[in-house]
C-alpha cells in the first residue's frame, strides 16, 4: 500500500499545477469554457475558499466565454429574488438584504459574505445589457414545496387567473402538516393520505394559465413553470424519503437536471450554464460507490443527457482547516475544525505531494494514473469531525468522476450572515 501511495504522490507532483490566484487557473477556465455546462463542486457547504474560487471562475466564464447563467443547489423562490437583484429588477437595497430570503436552514449556504462580491459583480455586469442578455442566478433544488406553491398563488392572483382556486385548494390540502415535510411524508407514504391529486390539478391549471398569459414577462412565466415543477417533485420527494432514501436522492437529482433544462430553454439553444453544487452531485456517480447503491446524480445525468463533451466538472477538496456546519439537522451553525484528511485519502496524498494549493486537468495523457478508487472527503451541512473516518469518505475514481480538480491545502470557514431562521 505504501508503494502505491508513493506512486500516487509522484503522479500528483508531476501532473498538478500550483496556483495562488485566479490568473493561475486560466488553463482550467479556458478548457471549461469549451463546454455547454460547467459543474463547479465543493467538498463542504461551509468553506470560504470554495465559494470565492467558484465566484472568480464564474465571472471569467460569463465575461470571457459567453456563459448565460448560474444555477445553484438552492431553492428556486429565494434564488429568484437574487436573480431579480442581479438583473436590476429588485427593490432590495443591497445584496445582504436580498440574501435574507435564504431563511430556511441551512441559511449559511447562500446567506454568506463570500457570495456577495459575485452578486454585486453580476448586477454591475448586467447594468448595461438588454433583458435577453443579462446573466441570471437560479436555484435548482426541490425542497421549497410550500414557498413554491405560495409563489404560484401570488402569480395567478396577479394575472387574475381563473385557476387561483385550484392553487388555493392544493395549499389547503397541505395545511394540516404545518409546513413539516417529514409529517407530510409519513402521512403520504404510510397512511396513503397524500395531496398528489391536488398537485396534479394545480399543474394542469398552471399549464393552461401559462399558455394564455400575456400580462407578465417570459422570465416570470419561467418562474411559474419551475415552481410548478418543484411542487410536483417535492411532493414525490417528501413522500418517498420516508420509505426509500435512495430513490428520494434520485428524485432530487433528476429534478435538478429537469430544472436546468427549463432554464436553458429560456435562454435559447446556444446558452451555456454554470452549476454550483456539492461534489456528491456534480461528480459522476458511476465513478464512486454510489453506483452500487443505486444512486445517480447531476454529474452522471447531464453527461448522459448532453454528452460528455458538453460537460466539464470541477471537483474541490481541502486537507484541513475550519468549516461551517451543524451537529444535527436544524441546529445552530458552528465553526468547526476540519481535521487533517485521513491517511491514504485523495486529500491526504495531495497534501503530501506539497502543502500548497494546486489543480489538475485530467486528459488522455494522465487520466489512467488517477483512475484507481481512493477515499475522497465529503462533508455535508450536518457534520461530526470526531467520526469523520466512518462516513465522510467516498471511494472515487477521481479522473472519472471529474474533468478537473482544485485543491486548497488549508481552508477557512464561511462567514454566515445573520438571518432569522424560519421553522420547517
UniProtKB/TrEMBL annotation:
This is Erythromycin esterase family protein. One of its GO terms (biological process) is response to antibiotic. CDD domains: Ere-like. SUPFAM superfamilies: EreA/ChaN-like. Pfam families: Erythro_esteras. Gene3D superfamilies: Biosynthetic Protein domain (1.20.1440.30), EreA-like (biosynthetic domain) (3.40.1660.10), EreA-like, domain 2 (3.30.1870.10). PANTHER family: ESTERASE, PUTATIVE (AFU_ORTHOLOGUE AFUA_1G05850)-RELATED (PTHR31299).
